[in-house]
Amino acid sequence: MNIRQLSFRLLEVFMSVVKTGSISETARQLHLTQPTVSLQIKRLQEAVNEPLIIMQQQKLQVTEAGLHLFRTCEQVFGHFDDYQDYLAELKGGERGRCKIAMVNTAQYILPKLLGPYSNAHPHVELPLEIGNRSAVLARFERGEDDIYVFSHPPSLEHAQAARFLHNPLVFIVPFDHSLADVKALTLADLMPYRFLLREPGSATRMLFESELQSRGLVLSDSVQMASNEAIRVAVSSGMGIAVLSHHVLPKGDNSFKVLNVTDTCLASHWYFVVRTDRHISHAARSFIKFAQLNLEQYLDKQWVRNELNGLNLH
Amino acid sequence: MNIRQLSFRLLEVFMSVVKTGSISETARQLHLTQPTVSLQIKRLQEAVNEPLIIMQQQKLQVTEAGLHLFRTCEQVFGHFDDYQDYLAELKGGERGRCKIAMVNTAQYILPKLLGPYSNAHPHVELPLEIGNRSAVLARFERGEDDIYVFSHPPSLEHAQAARFLHNPLVFIVPFDHSLADVKALTLADLMPYRFLLREPGSATRMLFESELQSRGLVLSDSVQMASNEAIRVAVSSGMGIAVLSHHVLPKGDNSFKVLNVTDTCLASHWYFVVRTDRHISHAARSFIKFAQLNLEQYLDKQWVRNELNGLNLH
DNA sequence: TTACCTCATAGGTTTTTATCTATGAGATAC
DNA sequence: GTATCTCATAGATAAAAACCTATGAGGTAA
């Protein structure tokens, strides 16, 4: 038997003949002519090199070998049916994987979406990568993930990005800092104080520094720290003051205070970024769709900027 | 996914690509050119309508859907391998069925071959049909069996026959019959006695009657009985005399005696008969081969007439 | 007998498939 | 920078597959 000359169509026709017990009937059911079916069976028998169906007293009789082949076909088609089911789930976004890489800061907001999504789609794997901006950028360059979360999206040559959340930056000081209760401050008022900053390249820092530069201001003292957590705690304990995303601040924590700086409005947005040169997994598409529909429900409504319909997910 | 545009060849190539992790390597192994393999994969992906293999950092990466398909293929090819094994056994005569129809008398000799054959080929089904000549002839006409056993084969229009055993007919009388110990008898000497005969049409009876006719002899009295067994027992108990196949006589039974009729040599042969207009099953072929090689071993050497090589089993 | 089934076969057409060669774009290796 | 891999794509061809119509042989049923 040469499996290479078998085709699924041939087997389909054969199965129908076995089931109906008639070549003409099969032809009618499959919208073929009777000679076509006869010929297919003949060819199948030649491929198998063994009679499968024989005429016996004007009736078709399936031989042993034919019956065996029939059962084999049933199993084979069963496997393909299973695969089709799997594919359907995969394409429906019910299965599969959606790898997301995000910059550190995003870990304060994204889980609010990921949790509900994961509950709604339990078969979707959701591996997360969290790193600083340069690490995530490197992953982005290599196209290692399905979705990237940035404030300040990278060059959009091979990517598209869409905002989903406003990301206001605020200045914080220890709760007992001398500026804490001043009604209206200017950015210049903060310059004398020591600033606790993330590494260069972090979106927050970039935004802040470009603001300073454009205004001709210079920090008198700054300290670099590796995480927003560390900065917040350091501010609370009086090491200095900082500019941080509003979203990273725990609510109801009184160990620091947000300043009222009237001449400055620093803000960026959170973006979902996908590469345009890579096929978007169905799971990723499904996640973005989910986000699009449920941003308001799971994130603070006041900051939501739902522009996800701008994404063209092929 | 449209299964109709899938071919086994396509899946074979796909599996090879997954295994080697390289399109070029697959091309080398399958003696194809690299573009051919590329194209096959592309076509498969179009059929499935889902990426199966993607380029990632200059390396081929199998997607989820691809891996799933690969596993599906493994199973499918496994089933066909099983079927191939089955076919091989079938074609080797190790499996399948060999239906044999024989006339009554043959049941005294054929089991001596069937037993050893069945032991040597335990997976071959051997359904037997035993009937009188006309019943077996009817089966033969309809082509219901693979092998027929006749003495006196039917018209050979759609059949071929080959002798395998001499079938001498002998005259028996009760052990205390007046003829029992006569040294030399003629056929005419037997005419006055009552003959116990099988039904008209039975080969034995036909042979006997044609001999009588050609010699101008007429039976004075005859009784018809349905089986050789019945005749033998009836002879033993004095109901008359009979002409029977030597093979149906149990050895060491002293309740009857074989006459020494010097002017008559009635004999036929046992034939295996197969139809020429029907495919001969591998099992049937295998049985005849077995008989051909082992006749002398399992049947009384003295009567064997091995002409089975005369059968042309296509 | 005729009409009407069955399946088989011959002969032909149109797609599809399985290949190839040639060529190009990227990446790596020296 | 050049050679040498990788894979992708375009264009061409020869074989095959998948059908069809027409026709015939053999059987059943009115």
List keywords for this structure.
homodimer; 314 residues; alpha/beta; D-Maltodextrin-Binding Protein, domain 2; 3 domains; two-stranded antiparallel ribbon; DNA-binding
Explain the overall architecture.
2 copies of one chain form a homodimer. With 314 residues, chain A is of the alpha/beta class. Chain A folds into 3 domains: 3-91, Orthogonal Bundle (Arc Repressor Mutant, subunit A); 96-165 and 269-310, D-Maltodextrin-Binding Protein, domain 2 (3-Layer(aba) Sandwich), CATH 3.40.190.10; 167-267, Periplasmic binding protein-like II (D-Maltodextrin-Binding Protein, domain 2, 3-Layer(aba) Sandwich), CATH 3.40.190.10. The first copy, chain A, is 40% helix and 21% strand. In chain A, β1 and β2 form a beta hairpin. In chain A, α2 (23-29) packs across α3 (34-48). The radius of gyration of chain A is 32 Å and the shape is rod-shaped. The first copy, chain A, starts with 7 loop residues before the first helix and ends in a 16-residue tail after the last helix. Chain A binds chain B through residues 1, 3-4, 6-9, 12, 48, 50-51, 54, 56-57, 64-65, 68-69, 72, 75-77, 79-80, 82-84, 86-87, 90-91, 95-97, 142-143, 278-279, and chain B through 1, 3-4, 6-9, 12, 48, 50-51, 54, 56-57, 64-65, 68-69, 72, 75-77, 79-80, 82-84, 86-87, 90-91, 95-97, 142-143, 278-279. The first copy, chain A, binds a DNA duplex (30 and 30 nucleotides) through α3.
